[in-house]
């Protein structure tokens, strides 16, 4: 019985390697996650019975990838559509006839996006990135400007879908240049059309979430998980005043830049000299799938000190 087990175990590591591996360790190749995606530079680490193990040169990471997604970089002068495949003959450069010199196409500016349209779709977001930094989404000189502009547009219009980490869209978003957390956070916090300031008026029942805490007792380490508790009410009146558990004062309308610090668009309010004497910002919470919710955050720390409200 033991001898059979050893033979079976050994057979798992004696699978025959390809007689003529298509790529060699150390070779720099190009990979496209799907046909329309931007080419990524990878370097072959090893080739074995499981496939081709590579590491990315422009971003951190390494994994097995299908050999059919890998290509050798094109030769100088070869058209973009022709690339060397494993074992294929090198393509011949394509030259223009002397009497017909190549004419450079004029650059076409990206069309301005609709600022006041309906909530954005996944395709609109990908198209925004593609038309502006699609030629080099990782190192484009206008990448920072483009990401900031897209985040502002999402806050202004909202989105018509729920963001899911690990989804096909999230992967395409990263491949298109939206790899900074700014874009995913803006999508998560701006589902649906932006709310008005008037939407925040009314009475809100507040809930405070206590974080998880580790503590020692009798030589053992215990963890008390986070829990929520009711914490009174907040009344926001249309006349510019508020009442927060007996603390009364005035509020003002937040600017777009102030709301952007919490990745939010839509109307928001600043409660002046409120709880503990500090200013607090009130924003609509657009993550829940049902009910009306708000976040009440200490103005400077934002998410560090906050309470939630529902009605």
Can you walk me through this structure?
The protein has helices at residues 2-12, 122-133, 143-157, 168-175, 182-188, 256-260, and strands spanning 28-31, 40-48, 51-56, 62-65, 70-71, 202-210, 213-217, 220-224, 227-236, 241-244, 247-253, 268-271, 280-284, 293-298, 302-310. The strands form 3 sheets. The protein has an 8-stranded antiparallel barrel. A 5-stranded antiparallel beta sheet has the order 4-3-2-1-5, with no helix packed on it. The protein has a two-stranded antiparallel sheet with strand order 7-8. It has 3 domains: 20-79, SH3 type barrels; 122-188, no CATH class; 197-310. It is of the alpha+beta class and 311 residues long. The protein is elongated. Mean pLDDT is 79; it is low at 1-20 and 80-91.
What's the short story on this structure?
This protein has 311 residues and is of the alpha+beta class. Helices cover 19% and strands 29% of the residues.
Number of discrete domains: 3
End-to-end CA span: 68 Å
How many H/I helical runs? 6
Compute the average pLDDT.
79
Query: Largest sheet at a glance?
Result: 8 strands, antiparallel, barrel
Strand content: 25-35%
Rg on CA atoms, Å: 28 Å
* Overall geometry: elongated
- Give me the secondary-structure category: alpha+beta
Query: What is the total tally of β strands?
Result: 15
Unreliable parts = 1-20, 80-91
Q: Can you give the helix content as a percent range?
A: 10-25%
Strand and helix order: HEEEEEHHHHEEEEEEHEEEE
**Taking strands numbered 1, 2, ... along the chain, how are they ordered across the largest sheet?**
6-9-10-11-12-13-14-15
